[in-house]
């Protein structure tokens, strides 16, 4: 409504339904529960929120060494238009023994590779986020002149009966490049 030079606005804001989040089948920390609630609070699309929350929950479980966890999400809407979101979690076996075998490595021994990965915090990442752990190892090889080194996961095997996860990596180190003589033409490195 306009009154002279002033305009008055009346806004109606629909708060939407109340959302309740439940976790069944596994104990989830209060901190992570709040992270999931934040996903739903920030979201404009419930489809995206379900997928994102499910993905974050699976990542959370794999970081705790539940590599074969499964999460189902259900949504129930009450007559009062309240949403009850239930995460049904089957964590599976917690793998306490992580084993690595490496094929194709010549420059670094398997022991050196394991030591490097553990020191950099990437050893468990091979099982949680293989791409991140592999990239870290390829970058390490490039520091030694193996600019085209490629690391691939050959096989991952889970043995729930003895809580062991085994991963086999294949390494193609490629050629080792070395920097020869450096010549500078034109500008000098230093004035004096």
In short:
Helices cover 32% and strands 27% of the residues. The chain has helices at residues 30-42, 46-63, 110-119, 123-128, 130-143; strands at residues 2-3, 6-7, 19-24, 70-77, 83-90, 97-103, 150-159, 164-172.
What does this protein structure show overall?
The chain is an alpha/beta fold. The protein contains five helices and eight strands. Strands 3-5-4 form a three-stranded mixed beta sheet, with helices on one face. Strands 6-8-7 form a three-stranded mixed beta sheet. Strands 1-2 form a two-stranded antiparallel sheet. Strand 7 and strand 8 form a beta hairpin. The longest helix has 18 residues. The mean pLDDT is 86.
Order of helices and strands: EEEHHEEEHHHEE
**Helical amount:** 25-40%
- The total strand number stands at 8
**How would you write the strand order of the largest sheet?**
3-5-4
Strand content: 25-35%
What are the segments in which pLDDT stays under 50 over at least 5 consecutive residues? none
Number of alpha- plus pi-helical segments: 5
- Classification by helices and strands: alpha/beta
Average pLDDT, rounded to a whole number, is 86
The radius of gyration over CA amounts to 26 Å
Kindly, what is the distance between the CA atoms of the first and last residues, rounded to a whole number of angstroms?
76 Å
Described by strand count, sense and barrel closure, the largest sheet is:
3 strands, mixed
Report the principal-axis shape: flat
């Amino acid at each position: 409504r306009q009154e002279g030079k002033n305009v008055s606005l009346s806004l109606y804001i629909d708060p939407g339904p109340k959302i309740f989040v439940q976790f069944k089948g596994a104990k989830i920390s209060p901190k992570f529960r709040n992270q999931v609630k934040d996903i739903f609070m920030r979201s404009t699309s419930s489809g995206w929120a379900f997928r994102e929350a499910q993905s974050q929950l699976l990542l959370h479980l794999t970081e705790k060494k539940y590599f074969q966890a499964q999460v189902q999400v259900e949504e129930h809407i009450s007559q009062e238009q309240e949403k009850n979101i239930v995460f049904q979690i089957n964590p599976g076996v917690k793998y306490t023994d992580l084993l690595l075998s490496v094929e194709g490595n010549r420059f670094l021994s398997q022991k050196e590779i394991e030591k490097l990965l553990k020191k950099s915090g990437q050893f468990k990442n091979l099982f949680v986020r293989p791409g991140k752990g592999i990239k870290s190892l390829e970058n390490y090889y490039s520091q030694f002149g193996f600019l085209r080194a490629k690391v691939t996961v050959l096989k991952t095997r889970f043995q729930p009966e003895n809580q062991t996860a085994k991963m086999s990596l294949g390494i193609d180190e490629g050629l080792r490049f070395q920097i020869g003589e450096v010549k500078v033409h034109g500008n000098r490195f230093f004035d004096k």
